Amino acid sequence: MAIKKTALAGTLESSDIQITLAPAASGGIQIDLDSAVASQYGDQIKKVITAALQGLGITDALVKAVDKGALDCVIKARTIAAGQRALEQTEPAWEVL
Amino acid sequence: MSKNNVGVDISDDILSTYDYKPFAGTQLGNPVSHRVAPTVRAQFGENKVVDSIAQVVKAEVKDGMTISFHHHLREGDQVFNEVMQVIIDAGIKDLTLAPSSLTNVMNDMVVKAIQAGTVTHITSSGMRGSLGDAVSHGALKTPVIFRSHGGRARAIETGKIKIDVAFLGVPNADEQGNANGMTGDAAFGSLGYALMDAKYANKVVLLTDNLVPYPNTPASINQTQVDYVVKVDQVGDPDKIGSGATRFTKDPKELKIAQMVNDVITHSAYFKDGFSFQTGSGGAALAVTRYLRQAMLDKHITASFALGGITKPTTDLLAEGLVRKVMDVQDFDKGAADSMHTNPAQQEIDASWYADPFNKGAMVDKLDVVILSALQVDTHFNVNVLTGSDGVLRGAVGGHQDAATAKLTIISAPLVRGRLATIVPQMTSITTPGESIDVVVTEIGIAINPDRQDLVAALSHIPGVPVFTIDELAAKAEAIVGKPAPIEYTDRPVALVEYRDGSLIDVIHQVKE
């Protein structure tokens, strides 16, 4: 499934991550990551974002992730919030949480 | 290849090229050394004041020389950039830069001087920001040498650092070069680190924005040492030299750590009348001073002295009579600087008196309790205060190695910072050996060095202070942040970290792009 509109979740506070999703017709999930811990945790952060989006059924999206040292649980939560906003789901998909 | 006492492999090539012995332990015995003396050109009362830095640089600075600065003006420093620009403009090459430390305000100018070929060698207490980045990525052909404040004093006294010209910013001076750090717009208090340069450099150049009538007293630096006095517009921005008012942290994590540090101190055998201590300037360290004050009042205990870098909370204890003497090598805020001016019990000490392991007795040897910080602590209690988790230079040795020789050395550090673990199995570099670290305090509890069974007995049953092994703390940190990918380095050394006695404790390599 491709997303319908651009959506954002998260802030630029310490220990948070800001996820912005934009529609992409194809090309899979493409992540542009900006993180001070990219050299140690970049791959892990991308893995968590990809898995969370796939859990929502999103297969194609442009992702801008501005990380401020977020833990995996925060990355997952922000990605799901952004994904559901991009899909215009008004009710959380509880079963994927 | 040989392994030093903290398990670092050091190549024979590095040992022979840079003339080092591997670090062998913190017990130094009674080394015998020779002190060098500077070259002196006699003067007979001629006015030493010159109007331009360029004039002094033209007369005194030549290719290949070693020049020095102090860092007492910290982020407000306006001397360093002005002098370095003149030296770059003069086309001078191949200098060794040997300041007491480098602050952020100097970073871009040092990078510029490296790119211009003006500076090709650096020895410092630390570096960070754009300069740390540049050096970590291989900007210099020869590795930077990092020394502690005591180590720098030793290196200067024994001639390992031979300063040709020292450029020293002072907030007041007379025309003969009598000067102190206590009055004037750019007053910063103790001149502790600069006193070494004033004593041992071949040429001593004072820069001041405040020429006062002769003779100027009290004279920390005096006319017997000074060749030139340069009048400049401003030596420093008072607002950036030190924080004006010290604010106590409201961060619950820092307060929790501070409370536990206080518990560790007050439950140790060292907390008795006449004890001595050193604290740093971090949020937790300042809060410790506040808790310690209450504990001292409650138990009717006074301290014989407080040592090192001084803050207002410490000088408040002096004013209150809870501390008998403050032995002051630098002042971190205006309150502490003012107190040095008004309170004779606050003694200015130079870096050698403070911490040099090769003199006839440094004050750190008399120190009971010290609270130090850490970027990383490994499971052997070794501490890193120089490189970040990404392997890039972003700190300073400072007095860490020196003060860590205290009888009770406490590291206060959060378990994790953001996504980065502080207690780790493997650090990016080693600054201070675990042999001199006794207790690590985090917000979840403490770890006691098993070599100190006396402390294990004294500190294992304090209410509200859980005790873990250092391995347990590292495991708890990793459970929160996950396992990081290892940092990759090239074979090229970018920095050599000396222990305070001049042996080699670590080699920092260039990080891979």
UniProtKB/TrEMBL annotation, chain A:
<protein>
    <recommendedName>
        <fullName>Citrate lyase acyl carrier protein</fullName>
    </recommendedName>
</protein>
<keyword id="KW-0597">Phosphoprotein</keyword>
<comment type="similarity">
    <text>Belongs to the CitD family.</text>
</comment>
<dbReference type="Pfam" id="PF06857">
    <property type="entry name" value="ACP"/>
</dbReference>
<comment type="subunit">
    <text>Oligomer with a subunit composition of (alpha,beta,gamma)6.</text>
</comment>
<feature type="modified residue" description="O-(phosphoribosyl dephospho-coenzyme A)serine">
    <location>
        <position position="14"/>
    </location>
</feature>
<comment type="function">
    <text>Covalent carrier of the coenzyme of citrate lyase.</text>
</comment>
<dbReference type="InterPro" id="IPR023439">
    <property type="entry name" value="Mal_deCO2ase/Cit_lyase_ACP"/>
</dbReference>
<keyword id="KW-0963">Cytoplasm</keyword>
<dbReference type="InterPro" id="IPR006495">
    <property type="entry name" value="CitD"/>
</dbReference>
<dbReference type="GO" id="GO:0005737">
    <property type="term" value="C:cytoplasm"/>
</dbReference>
Automatic annotation (TrEMBL), chain B:
<dbReference type="GO" id="GO:0005737">
    <property type="term" value="C:cytoplasm"/>
</dbReference>
<keyword id="KW-0808">Transferase</keyword>
<dbReference type="GO" id="GO:0009346">
    <property type="term" value="C:ATP-independent citrate lyase complex"/>
</dbReference>
<dbReference type="InterPro" id="IPR006472">
    <property type="entry name" value="Citrate_lyase_asu"/>
</dbReference>
<keyword id="KW-0963">Cytoplasm</keyword>
<dbReference type="InterPro" id="IPR037171">
    <property type="entry name" value="NagB/RpiA_transferase-like"/>
</dbReference>
<dbReference type="GO" id="GO:0008815">
    <property type="term" value="F:citrate (pro-3S)-lyase activity"/>
</dbReference>
<keyword id="KW-0456">Lyase</keyword>
<dbReference type="Pfam" id="PF04223">
    <property type="entry name" value="CitF"/>
</dbReference>
<protein>
    <recommendedName>
        <fullName>Citrate lyase alpha chain</fullName>
        <ecNumber>2.8.3.10</ecNumber>
        <ecNumber>4.1.3.6</ecNumber>
    </recommendedName>
</protein>
<dbReference type="GO" id="GO:0008814">
    <property type="term" value="F:citrate CoA-transferase activity"/>
</dbReference>
<dbReference type="GO" id="GO:0006084">
    <property type="term" value="P:acetyl-CoA metabolic process"/>
</dbReference>
